Amino acid sequence: MAFIAFTTTIAAYGQQKWHHGRLQVTPDGHYLQYEDGTPFFWLGDTAWELFHRLKKEEIMRYLDNRKAKGFNVIQAVVLAEMDGLRQPNQYGDIPLIDLDPEKPNEAYFKLVDDVITAAYERQLFMGLLPTWGDKVTRMWGTGPAVFTTENAYHYGHWLGNRYKDNQNIVWILGGDRPALHDSVDTRPIWRAMAKGILEATKGKALLSYHISGGEHSTSQQIHTEPWLHMNMMQSGHGSGHDVPVWEWVTRDRALIPTKPTLDSEPNYEDHPVNPWPKWDPKNGYFNDYDIRKQSYRSVFAGACGVTYGHHSIWQFWSEREEKINHADRYWSEALNRPGAFQVGYLRQLIESRPFIDRIPDQTIIADGQGEKGQHIRAFRDREGSYFMAYIPEGRTIEVDLSTLKAGPVRVWWFNPATAETTDLGILNHAGRLQLTSPTQGFGKDWVLVIDHVAKRYPIPTFKHP
Fold first, then answer.
1. Calpha distance 47→329 (Å, rounded)
2. Which InterPro entries match (predicted)?
3. 125 part of a folded domain
């Protein structure tokens, strides 16, 4: 397959190398790593309409922005949601001839080629959705539903063969639809598409599935499918604040066979709260604090990463398009919203310590635990050399250090909104410590970090893109 590379990509990134290979599941089944064993923390961004609504130079701007902020996975859809089969992309090309999955339009897919190449040059993975779910089962949305088990296999095989040599792809089936809903069972179609991808890539592909919002994750419907390597959930936008996503992650982690799991669509920044069936403006919009609470608590509960989203960016709303669901600014104005920086700080924090041996451990919180918006999540590493606790509303808590190695500890606070740190120094303890966050109350979230002194972990210096 011949790629058409962007001149700006070659000039700016041509010296970089893709060192570590493809992604795979860690031996313990909970997290992700590269082929060479290097740990990988998934920090995704939601760019569903990327191929459909942006021009090449806009795509470059977007990818550069996300790379600078620390994102490493871009989730985008080949057959896009917003009438993606009939409404052409910005170059007048539709993806399928005669709405036939067995007749892909070469002109359309050259843009997809270019984007995958541009992402590769920036060390970014593409979380590539072959299609949005309404092309398999309409349920709601524009559709039309065009897939059968036969053409799904052929389409999957064609895609897998086209991109078999691209190491920076994670395949995500689904597209905001359950695989099983009442009497509608689309599992045979997704199974056929996955089979085509896996056969064409000689089993090298890593596959997951993007499910619709609600308390169910892929683990409730397709966990035992052999093609599914990683579970996903969508805590979403329609159930208000503080959806207990940490409970869903805990549930998924306990399943056999063991598979990584993550929230692939938490509440988007600047998305209206509870907009269905009709939005009450009094509900307002989700903000960066909401983003932090859901992202940190899912990760600290044991997810292999998390995906951020902005309401204007997933749809790439601009003067060319009609806004969807009360978007409040153009996508270009949303690139530097606070939450996009702050999830990058989360990645830096997790990667500052050994992180693929993380073990969720709520016994650490001996006193001060709260519910819903005040609920704390904590984890430690397997050998007990450090632990972290996310506290969504700053206050006094008591921590139980019995799962850490005996000896003095270094205690410090991390501000997830600003990446500032507060060092309390080296403390001795008799098994428990009572600690008060630097600020208290609603909107004053903190991460408590306690390191065993013997490990000599430094307090990180955080990058501010």
1. 16
2. Apiosidase-like_cat_dom, Collagen-bd_put, GH
3. yes
